[in-house]
Amino acid sequence: MHRVSRRLFCSLLVCAACPGMAHAQSPWPSKPVHILVPGGAGGVTDIRARWLAARLSPVIGQPVLVENKPGAAGLIGMEAGARSAPDGYTLVIVHQGTMAVNPHLYAKIPYDPARDFIPVTRLGVGSLVLVVNPGLPVKNVNELVALAREREGKLSFGSPGVGTPPHLAGELFKREAGVKAIHVPYKGGGAAASDLLGGHIDYSIEGLSVMLPHIQAGRVRALAVTGPTRVPSLPGVPTMREAGLADYVYEGWVGIVLPAGTPRAIVAKAYEAIAQVLATQEARDWFGAAGADVGAETPEAFGAFMRAEDLKWGKVVRDAGIKVE
Q: Do the Cβ atoms of 233 and 224 come closer than 8 Å?
């Protein structure tokens, strides 16, 4: 029998008593990583999560799996993300709605964006696109506005849920155009798109990554993009400003966070890996086709950006008197 030294024996006792220490020292990642999407399949966050997962996997040398948790405007998925182990194996994809709008929109939510998450980086920021079902007798924004006024309060628009970027963009359209319309919330962008294609709703303001294939196939008609400039993939589609709404500009963003308590070293590694993916020409081309610019800010810069967004959208929600119990 080999004799165990007193120093080694004591160190083994410490490791046995504190299993978390051994885990904290293990290299990241040493097993599959999950990207949690607080929304359904087919929406902007889902599409971007799946694009990132496919390219992040070879960078980190582990499978990257996408997990959808739709419902309640992202509250269900965000709560699950907040309760995930802070070990770097659950990345959470977020946007304006989940991080900067929900806290002001709802009387109570099951997570705190600032307390429960650590920023990693922003993936991209860019335009949405106003689309209508081809059966709607309009070919431009002015005709849509005229029809909405003619059928006051009867036209409907869909979104992935209350407080999501498409919902906010739709409310901004109503305000700037001076029209009334019915908002129909869904459990994800894919479901809203399906109902638009089926003629169950009249129009939608969605991410280009969701709508571009339908626009190109002629299944929906694009009337305008929401950003300050036209997008390369739809050069013939005007901006909202060009289409007649002089004060309308809206850009949506998507980013990655980790649960609070995740070690700084893991946050840094996750940022470096994602930044490597976003630094490629492929990333610039893919986001550019969707009318977006690549993010890749540092965790500190992304955190400052989200704090500014919280102040901005909190004021918008309060001024508009929007509240969900």
A: no
Angle, CA of 162, 165 and 166, to the nearest 5°: 80
User: Hey, what are 23's tokens?
Assistant: 């885990």
Side chain identity, residue 69: K
Give the model confidence (pLDDT) of 159-198 as tens digits.
988 888 898 899 889 989 999 999 999 988 889 999 999 9
- Neighbouring residues of 259: CB distance < 8 A, sequence distance ≥ 6: 81, 82, 83, 84, 85, 86, 90, 92, 116, 117, 118
Q: Write the pLDDT tens digit of every residue in 100-117.
A: 999 998 989 999 999 999
Say if residues 105 and 74 touch (Cβ distance below 8 Å): no
**Which residues, given as ranges, of the chain have pLDDT below 50?**
1-24
Of 51, 69, 324, 39, the C-alpha closest to 160 is: 39
Instruction: Give the type of residue at 294.
Output: V
Phi, psi of 203 (to 5 degrees): -150, 170
Q: Which amino acid is at 45?
A: T
Looking at 61-204, list the stretches that DSSP marks H as alpha helix, in order from N- to C-terminal side.
Answer: 75-82, 96, 102-105, 113-116, 141-150, 165-177, 189-197
Q: Over the stretch 48-63, which tens digit does the pLDDT of each residue have?
A: 999 999 999 999 999 9
In the chain, the amino acid numbered 67 is E
Q: Where are the beta strands (DSSP E) in the chain?
A: 33-37, 64-68, 90-95, 117-132, 156-159, 182-185, 203-207, 221-225, 251-259, 292-294
| 8 Å CB contact between 59 and 18 | no
| β-sheet bridge partners, residue 117 | 259
